[in-house]
Design a protein that fits this description.
Elements: E1 5-14, E2 17-27, E3 32-36, H1 43-50, E4 55-62, E5 65-66, H2 72-77, E6 80-83, H3 95-101, H4 110-116, H5 118-122, H6 133-145, E7 151-155, H7 163-180, E8 183-187, H8 191-197, E9 200-205, E10 208-213, H9 220-227
């Protein structure tokens, strides 16, 4: 089966400094893949390179289409939704305005997002800047879903959040996996949660993919060496 997203030999640069050195990864339809590694190992850069937000090289195909030369907005329109690190909401707009600003036709509409994250319905008229960190993260995910993507990319979806809010977000991602059969590429460090959610993990170290397999197969030694756990 041809993967929905296929990345081969991905390289990326921050100015003159090379950050990625031939990363390979793939995500199939309906599959959840965890992108893991210690801070500074290239996870966010990999996502930004896939979306052509940094200078990048290598082969990148999505839904059978070569996206390596496409600008970021056309890659998004091809069916990739991103909830970025740092959320990057429209701070002065309301929850509803943030959601509808990104809307494209499909099953993910205001009602569907509110079912997934009931808190957003309660905060409908509030400015994004007034939300808690967890609510802002829910809004960032909801905004990405409103684009009706075939692939959802989540960069540090639970970082720095309170345990109860983290649990809500992990439950929502499990719902997406089970009920929507959505392809998801998720960057996170929570090995226990990712073991329950993800079909495969790709570990980066020094801008290279150094291990791929089921997250449940990550040994304590590998976790200590590559994840800092």
């Amino acid at each position: 089966m041809t993967p929905l997203l296929q990345v081969e030999g991905l390289t990326a640069f921050h100015g003159p400094a090379q950050a990625l050195f031939g990363v390979d990864l793939a995500v199939a339809e309906g599959e959840v893949v965890a992108l893991m590694g210690r801070n500074g190992m290239g996870k966010t850069t990999t996502i930004r390179a896939i979306l052509n937000l940094v200078a990048a090289g290598g082969r990148r195909r999505f839904a059978g289409r070569d996206i390596a030369a496409l600008p970021a907005h056309r890659i998004a329109r091809a069916g990739i939704g991103l909830a970025p690190e740092g959320r990057r909401l429209f701070a002065g707009l309301t929850v509803r305005e943030n959601l509808v600003a990104a809307a494209r036709p499909g099953p993910w509409d205001l009602a569907a997002v509110r079912r997934l994250f009931p808190r957003l319905a309660e905060r409908d008229g509030q400015a994004a800047r007034t939300l808690s960190g967890g609510e802002q993260q829910m809004l960032a995910i909801g905004r990405a879903l409103m684009t009706n993507p075939r692939l959802l990319i989540l960069d540090e979806a639970t970082e720095g959040l309170a345990p109860l809010v983290r649990a809500e977000i992990w439950a929502a991602l499990d719902t997406l996996r089970r009920e929507a059969a959505m392809a998801i590429l998720v960057v996170d460090k929570s090995l226990a949660e990712l073991t329950r959610l993800a079909d495969r993990a790709v570990i980066l170290d020094g801008g290279r993919d150094v291990w791929t397999g089921p997250p449940g197969d990550i040994t304590a030694g590998r976790a200590a060496r590559h994840l800092g756990i």
